[in-house]
Design brief:
Helix content: under 10%
Radius of gyration: 14 Å
Strand order of the largest sheet: 4-9-8-7-6
Strand content: 35-45%
Distance between the termini: 30 Å
Oligomer: single chain
Structural class: mainly beta
Number of strands: 10
CATH class: Mainly Beta
CATH architecture: Beta Complex
CATH topology: Metal Binding Protein, Guanine Nucleotide Exchange Factor, Chain A
Largest sheet: 5 strands, antiparallel
Number of domains: 1
Shape: globular
Order of helices and strands: EEEHEEEEEEHE
Length: about 120
């Protein structure tokens, strides 16, 4: 198991295994967050947080909720908003120590235009 936290430690993330690749998206929000997304099914991720530590942000079509720490502001993960049964959560690997993810393949997703992996 691999574990990480936001900067202040109020949100803890545990994943059962490392992803095969990390995704850097260039859409308007992800490029601002500068996140490295690792995609998982919900049963592979455990997110533990202090009461009130997670703040959600929905934008655009409001189908994705980006989650960040209410205290330190770190963007930790995102998942489907509302009643979606998507069953997926994406973890920001910049919350992990660099040595954890340095050897994982990095791909760019063109979320700004073509919606294709580059």
């Amino acid at each position: 198991m691999y574990q990480s936290t936001c900067h202040c430690g109020a949100i803890k993330i545990q994943v059962l295994h490392l992803p095969q690749r990390l995704i850097q998206c260039n859409c308007s929000i992800c490029r601002r967050y500068a996140a490295l997304w690792g995609h998982y099914s919900k049963h592979e991720v455990c997110i533990i947080s202090d009461p009130g530590a997670i703040t959600e942000y929905l934008w655009g079509d409001k189908i994705i909720k980006f989650c960040h720490c209410s205290n330190c502001g770190c963007v930790t993960h995102y998942d489907a908003a509302g009643d979606s049964v998507d069953g997926r959560v994406s973890v920001n690997f910049h919350m992990f120590a660099p040595e954890v993810y340095r050897d994982i393949e990095l791909r760019t997703f063109d979320g700004a235009d073509t919606w294709e992996l580059l």
